[in-house]
Write a structure and sequence with these properties.
single chain, Thrombin, subunit H, Type 1 dockerin domain, 2 domains, 19% helix
């Protein structure tokens, strides 16, 4: 894979240096076989399913808060949200918590008799404020706004009866949400002046992609004539939203912020017409486990990517890769690396986790990252975190 904007030399030099190091490590790993990373944190024991952290599990409060988490309304600890302990926090975990609440099941996987589970490497909580730039193509104006994920809890919670908000039952609206099955048609092409890339549908008029497919940092300009193509139909972009840190970087970790949202100028509901993709958040424990499979040709491959190359959807399988030298990598709390097959034009494509590792089934794939750049052997992209869930799913600035 290479960036579709040839002028992105500033980011390109950093990434080429990164890839040189990572690729050499990868070659050594291929020769040596699989490896396992040591835990990067002291193990911690958690009460599984206790979303509001009051010592009790399976209450309406926990279910409502978990539903709000998966709609980007609040932030919960990823490891506590991973109820079914498959390594990825998805709405499947909400279904399991509901089953526990209704006594359809009596316990959660990998918990002891008291409902506790030990986490080897606790996943970092990403709840800081991020500033975004919104560009309106109709009037060629750019404004900014801030987004901060809300901590767990519902305003007005009385702290005594966690199943009630000011004496009233919490709203059950989040319970109707289910995880959207994977579909190829939700992965689409992006075109603009001197660019070609990939995006994926996440809402009625919203698609996710890379920031470098919307803004050229070297020319300090928003890319013009931006449009998507879905099943041969062209739709034009009316708004582009990118992190301010991508446009005005203050650190060397620019790739971490290489993600964007595009609003499409159409009355057509893209999600219902072509399908949409659901998000999930991979845990650090799972990241380490899959990194241990890297370089093994016989290991089950859980990471799936698909993007457009020369007008055709190209896909590949691999596993996550966790480089050990922090000097050469983006912050691993916010960035993922993987050894999937990649091709020119798949910048902006979704990085999906296949929950059961069965390549013949597709309904259990969720987006855990947004592909931003790489080489034919190593890819990398922003990791789905609470900050990005807020940006994608609960952003009132559209």
């Amino acid at each position: 894979m290479r960036r579709t904007i040839k002028s992105q030399e500033k980011r390109g030099k950093l990434f080429r240096r990164l890839l040189t190091t990572v690729t050499s490590v990868a070659m050594a790993l291929t020769i040596c076989g699989s490896f396992a990373l040591p835990a990067s944190a002291v193990p911690i024991t958690i009460k599984v399913g206790d979303i509001d952290n009051d010592g009790m599990v399976g209450k309406i409060a926990d279910v409502v808060l978990l539903g709000k988490h998966f709609t980007g309304q609040i932030i919960s600890q990823t490891d506590m949200v991973d109820i079914n302990h498959d390594g990825v926090a998805t709405r499947d975990d909400l279904d399991m918590l509901i089953s526990y609440l209704t006594s359809s099941i009596s316990s959660f996987p990998d918990t002891n008799a008291s409902g506790y589970r030990t986490i080897t490497d606790m996943t970092a909580v990403q709840n800081g404020t991020r500033t975004y730039l919104k560009h309106n193509y109709a009037n060629d104006t750019t404004t900014s706004y801030d987004l901060t994920p809300t901590a767990v809890g519902v305003p007005g919670w009385d702290g005594v009866s966690p199943d009630n908000t000011n004496g009233q039952s919490p709203p059950l609206t989040p319970l109707v949400n289910t995880r959207t099955p994977y579909t190829n048609s939700a992965i689409i092409e992006v075109y603009g002046s001197n660019l070609r890339g990939t995006a994926f549908i996440i809402g009625p008029q919203m698609v996710a992609t890379n920031a470098h497919l919307a803004y050229n940092i070297n020319n300090s300009a928003w890319l013009s004539n931006l449009r998507i193509v879905v099943n041969g139909v062209t739709y034009y972009v009316s708004e582009a939203h990118v992190p301010d840190e991508y446009v005005n970087p203050t650190t060397n970790y620019g790739l971490t912020y290489d993600y964007a949202l595009l609003k499409i100028n159409t009355s057509v509901n893209l999600a219902t017409t072509y399908g949409s993709l659901s998000f999930g958040a991979v845990t650090d424990d799972k990241l380490n486990a899959l990194s241990g499979l890297y370089g093994s040709s016989s290991a089950t491959q859980y990471i799936f990517s698909a993007g457009y190359s020369s007008g055709a959807l190209t896909s590949g399988w691999g596993n996550l890769f966790n480089p050990t030298d922090p000097y050469y990598v983006e912050n691993p709390d916010n960035y993922l690396y993987y050894n999937n097959y990649t091709a020119s034009g798949d910048s902006g494509s979704p990085v999906l986790f296949d929950l059961d590792g069965d390549h013949t089934t597709t309904s259990d794939r969720v987006v855990i990252g947004v592909n931003a750049g790489g080489s034919p052997s190593i890819g990398g992209g922003p990791r789905i975190t609470a900050q990005l869930m807020k940006f994608y799913l609960n952003n009132s600035n559209f």
